[in-house]
Amino acid sequence: MMGILRSRVSGCAFVLSCALLAAAATSVAAPQDAAPQDDPAAAATPTEAEAGDAADTPADPAGAAGDDVADETLEPIVLPRQQIFLEDVDLDQVDPNILETQPDAETPEQKLRRLFVMYMDAIADRGFEEADTLGKQIVELTISEYGLDSHESAKALTNLAIAQHGIQDYESSILNYTAAIGIIERVDDRLSSALINPLRGLGAAQLASGRPDLAREAYDRAVHVSHVNEGPHNLEQIEVLQSLAETYLAVGEAEEAADIQKRIFYLQARNVDDQSLDMIPALKTRAEWQRRMLLLEQERYTWRRIIGILEDEYGKESLELIEPLTELAKSYLIVGYLTDAPYVDSSTVASGEIYLKRAVRITERNEEAGWQDRMAALLQLGDYYMVTDRANRGHRVYREVWDLLSEEPDRLPVRARELEQATPLNEIRPPRMFGGDPSVPIVSDPPGYDTATVTVGYSVSTRGQAADIRVVDADPPGLSDMYESVGREIRRCIWRPKMVDGEFVDAPDLTFNHQFYYRRADLPEPVQEPAEDELVSGNPNSG
Known about the structure:
8% strand; two-stranded antiparallel ribbon; alpha+beta; globular
């Protein structure tokens, strides 16, 4: 019992394992900026001979042929939050009025069911602190009723782990999740299928705590157990494999990550007609991965293949084509964003524009298209023009959207959200660590560091560019290098400009708040108070 429970404050308060199935690694965002030279591509799907065996080309983080990007240009990767797998309990006999039961009239089994319903509600609302409290009660009662070495206790530990990972208590997560795995091994064996979920949680907690080497071991074991119980081609292993691929990326082993992604693709595509709609989920997964690895030639081929399948099934004016057309267009913006490359090749810009214009035409011709479809397609095209420094064209498209959203009163709130404020078209992501590498993920408060905040003010012009960048507030003052980093990030961002009464206006008095970590030794001696409205990055109108 002492190996699982851990005294915290007083009484029966204790800490148990945590396994929120989410992890922080590193990800190339889908930025919107210009790409290097590339030949314009038609919307038709190229032949297999033209594309080559793109799927089997080893992943190279520097990009495919024609997409030369140095390793150091890769943006920070953030693994999207994975699905949380709650360990289920038998709720078949749960009274729908269970929450109305008087606690003093409950049996232990009824109390467990009531607490579990409350716990699930807390998790659904992302109230992890409340779920943590409920989970501890569930664990204590479960061990009392079923004993420590029981499937029920292992499930209770796993569910508590989910909540504790949500509050970033990774140390307890790893310690006690390991104990939950030990229970399953004692009750069943080391190859029990019940191990897969807690092993995934253990890997997630280890990755989040900065130990990708241990996370890799946990994920590898989860895959092995899955193969033993479900066979080497089971689809249930895919999410574990995705986590494993992210772990390889976190330690810089891109080729291993690419090999795993190829395994995922072949699992999804196995026994599927490669020209059928059933092939599209596998192709989308592959395209997303190819974008992250900057294999842009291959990504474009994959999206064109998806477009070809959809055209054969639904025709050339189907609304189903809008998503792949939009994603194909975005692929022509990525490399320029990552490398700060200038817009030197008009043919590259035109390549992406072709697909967005086609998406707009589909919304005009398809009788099933609603105003929301047309608005979304037009906004994508307008945003594309702004990011590629063609504000006049963007303005024409945005005015068309304004007119569309002004036709009916119920569209006015959408107009206010989309057009009546400056909207950033790419992320502002300054470093989280003073003097540190912006690509290093910060998953919890690092030891030896304090928290600082800076508020930077700026305005956005009608061309979607930031101006008048200045420090509004800084606590503590004196960390000027970070203030300049925030200013540079704001300057490189592009906005959808603000509109008032159908006309474009400057958006003044905007602010960006940034929290970061620093060491006391980073502060200058003596500390100098920054002047209000201090410029942080040279000429505010440059760039």
